[in-house]
Design goal:
By secondary structure, the protein is of the alpha+beta class. The protein contains seven helices and four strands, in the order αααββαααββα. The chain folds into two domains: 31 residues; 121 residues, Beta-Lactamase, CATH 3.30.450.150.
Amino acid sequence: MKPAVLLASVLTLIAVSTFGPVAAQTTAPAAPVTYPPYGRAVTLAEAKVAVAAAEAEARKNGWSMVITVVEPNGHVVLSEKMDGTAYASIDVANKKAETAATFRRPTAAFQQAVKDGNLNSIFTGAMALEGGELLVVDGQTVGAIGVSGALAVQDGQVARAGAAALVR
């Protein structure tokens, strides 16, 4: 047996016996997640459809929320504050929509990154709370919807209902 092969075999045996079988395994890096490319800007009519669907989901569950739709550049097209929603939710919904649009990914991705210990996203100003979703029409990102007013998971549920109303 060649010395290099023998050395590699011995080192592998030591690693496995010391650290267990997991140490000897290698994992391929995860494939990068891709999101739809930017397209045209969401229209006011489309924003109204998304907001109406989101509002219907919020009302069905008894939640009072702010729902904001933005263009791909993060600028507001339409924002609605349901009666009784906290005033702070206005800024949070806007920031969720802006983050989703300008980073071209749902804000839940940033929330998960923070949970995993990666704080880079919050240093860029991204809103790392679920509730911001992309608006996709004909396979292209035309904007985003941001929702705030309840728990982040509930905000996300309402935002996805609004986004689903536009996907085609």
